[in-house]
Here is the input.
Amino acid sequence: MKFTAEQIAGILNGTVVGDTNIEVSKLSKIEEGTKGSLTFLSNAKYTPYIYSTQASITIVNNNFEPEKPISTTLIKVEDAYEGFSKLLEYYDRIKTNKSGIEQPCFIHESVNVPDNIYIGAFAYIGNNVKLGDNVKIYPNVYVGDNVVLGDNTILFPGAKVYSDCIIGKNCVINSGSVIGADGFGYAPTKDGGYNKVPQTGNVILEDFVDIGAATTIDRATIGSTIIRSGVKLDNQIQIAHNVEIGKNTVIAAQTGVAGSTKIGEQCVIGGQVGIVGHLVIGNNVKVQAQSGIGRNVKDNEILQGSPSFGYSDWNKSYVYFKNLPKLAKTINELEKKVDGNN
Here is the structure.
């Protein structure tokens, strides 16, 4: 798919300086630009590359004025980084703009299928599923009975949504993710074994939730596991039964959240964090990577370590952690001196 500089400027409300008819069909870094590619310049340290780049079109800030001759056509916008991001969104929307129903697939006769929908080959759509407008269901997706999929939601190949789960509008569920599998509920028996506790609840994803690849969100034992609007979950995250995650919280890869923990709004949680069950995590909390959270956390706390404690205290303590062998040697030498003087 090709776009001219004039078309791109129209999308971005920008101004072309150079050849308005020059075409691009791919994206590139400015230092790796080749003929037919589009790039951008927003960070001043990359300015030298604009004089050597072979990219056909470069998006720049309105105030950029070249000091030497350039071969690339410029599109001037208010914010080059924001403009390039907008263009990526536009490109991604076109790339994923599939429609129609591929065969073979299974759609239960009870399902009302909107006209503007995409269902890929080998997808399974169960009994009484509710499909919103412009939903896209890629090949090998499983959608269980009584599931609701809101408008503009996308399920990428191999995603699984178990029965009774509710997915809001404008959500993205990436490949291999499982929404609504049984929670880890078992009751110990007198003979030392375990009996499974039925998991009768569901999972609710509100609007604008993104779920990374191979992430699992377990259904509630009773009630709902709830992921609030705007939450972004990375790849390979485990969210246990009856967890609630507040609006616009973001969580990085390989984090695990145990059952019934409540996480607040606008939190930022790093990769490989472990959070035990039945906790309350406040709003605007930041947790550094590989931390272990074993207590309730107040609003605005910043935590690091396992078990975690205050971030600034952790940094101060680390000065001593890394010098422990030296400190131990010094103490031993002092003890010998003291013993020698007695």
User: Anything to note?
Assistant: Residues 3-95 form a domain with the Udp-n-acetylmuramoylalanyl-d-glutamate--2,6- Diaminopimelate Ligase; Chain: A, domain 1 fold (CATH 3.40.1390.10). Residues 198 and 221 are 7 Å apart (CA to CA).
